[in-house]
Amino acid sequence: MRAAPHDQLPSAALPSDPATETYTFSTLSVQIAIAIISDTTASHLVWEYVAHAIVATAREASEARETKNS
């Protein structure tokens, strides 16, 4: 059985809910570095969180544009 991502990576590197968290790219870079340095075998899991952060950031930007245009 595979451990959950939060069991493999340091908590400082993970949002509590990656789908709703947004990050600046510099903050995200630091979190990725912490995760990779802490556990290189879990680096594939980092990309899952990167994808969630990018989607959340894009969603937030889209909502901000919609709010601005209305």
Automatic annotation (TrEMBL):
It comes from the Eukaryota. This is Uncharacterized protein. It comes from Colletotrichum orbiculare (strain 104-T / ATCC 96160 / CBS 514.97 / LARS 414 / MAFF 240422) (Cucumber anthracnose fungus).
